[in-house]
Amino acid sequence: MPLSAVRERASKALSVRIAAVSRISTDVKKGKELHSPNKRKHQREKPDVKKGKELHSPNKRKHQREKPVVDIDDFAKCAIRSAVYDMYRDKQHITLQSLAATLQKLVEKG
Prior knowledge:
Residues 28-68 are annotated as: Disordered. This protein is an all-alpha fold and 110 residues long. The chain has a domain at 74-109. 47% of the residues lie in helices and 0% in strands. It has helices at residues 6-14, 18-30, 74-89, 96-109. Helix 1 crosses helix 2.
């Protein structure tokens, strides 16, 4: 495919029809706002500062992470780390439940 066939190359790379690439290209040239039809309204409020136009990703959501536990002493950190390494060495599948069971056994031993 020749380099001059920009829309055809873009449609093939994005796996969309040439008509969709042409429509979006025309909208950008006319200065229309681009948005995804499945995008929630409150997520459309952040403009793209560099280009002066809004560009959106469909259904993009931020992952809410839980805050890590930071008030754990060094002895406990070392014991947890050691248990994980031991489980890894023994080729056990490490999950939160299996780690908790292993740590409980360590506490019971003494």
